[in-house]
Task: structure prediction
Amino acid sequence: MIAKTKAIKNIEKFTDSMPTIRYVDPEYVYLAVQNARCQVGDVLVKEGDYVKIGDKIALRHGPFFEQPVHSTVSGVVEGIVKKYHRCGKLVDFIKIKNDKKDVLSDSYHERTDEEIKALTKDEFVEILKEQASVGLGGSSFPTYIKFQTDDPIHTICINGVECEPYLSADHRIILEHPDRVLTGAMYCKQVLKAKRVCICIKKKYEDLYDCLNAAKLRYPDLNLEVIKVGNYYPQGWELEMLRTALHLDLEPGSIPAKSGVMVLNVSTVAGIYQSVKFNLPVIKRNFTLTGDGIKLPQNIRIRVGTSLKELIELCGGYKGDENKVVILGGPMMGANLLNDDAVITKACTSCIILNEKNYKEEPCVRCASCVYSCPCGLQPVLIMQAYKNKDKEALKMLGVKKCILCGMCSYTCTSKIHLTEIMRKAKKMIQ
Result:
């Protein structure tokens, strides 16, 4: 397996300016029973059952929460299969044959504006919990838990930075569906009684700036500010974004709500709109498939649970005869998969297909490139040594828990050492 962070320099095509195509009627969808946050799940349906869009088909059990799994199509359950999850692990998926009739669950309910304005905070939280709203920027953290805060929130900060290279799913959802984003933001502002909303975007994206400033004229009560932030990585990291946009300097591990700020991803806010307005979970999402190993990079509107193999075929198949590197998620923080038999979950933003290039890992030369590039101020070279020595106390003293696994240490390493993977293993060692 190559160092994926080195290979992204060879991606040839960009998708920011490509309109989103639709692929929302696959023959089958696959819905994960477990995920990275929930190692255990109960299946609530059996083979032969007919399900509708939004029906609850499984229940995941997390360390301090439970999370329902909903069908994203109407059709017949065909059983349980093993496939790769976005976390890189083989997990159980419920296979459903799509009847392509889009029959909605009996729980579907389109709320009027008056009903939404009358929602209490507890009712709002319950909706997000029942519809399994999660962070769609990749974190998959349950959104309802954020809204349970008792801290007074004065600012809602929406993350539209999408700072990993070559991704554009959030870019396109802002351009193509700004009203979903701003209406969702209005719902959040209302329930939290916040004073203002800001959306952060990269300063180079004038198209997003113009689009949002035009759209906000339809929402005079939103008190929206569009803030341009840096074009660098990892500008989209929560704390770095707050430092740049709001001049709020927080330590790694800090909770922004303690400082009166609620941070939400732009796609998450669009999903909140869907849940509150129609009492439905996220059933479709924007997805980027790109890289120098794919013939036709695209932005695609997909049904959650779609097979990655189908999307690769939709994009013309593989390009070149080289072995392929499949990265589910962004090129810096995504998971390398052993093959393409994977499924797109609701929190999966993208897939990068790269032609494999072999890099020889060499001994560390103590150049300190990893130290200078770390946004958390860590010393990856010392953490690597402590990990090799199995020195848990040293790992704690070196602050490895603060690592956000951004990939910068691997990317800048002159010896091509897989430092990010070592950091990941070191974090697990002390858990």
About this structure: The CA atoms of residues 56 and 70 lie 4 Å apart. The chain is about 30% helix and 20% strand. The radius of gyration is 21 Å. The chain has three domains: 4-105+282-355, 113-278, 369-429.
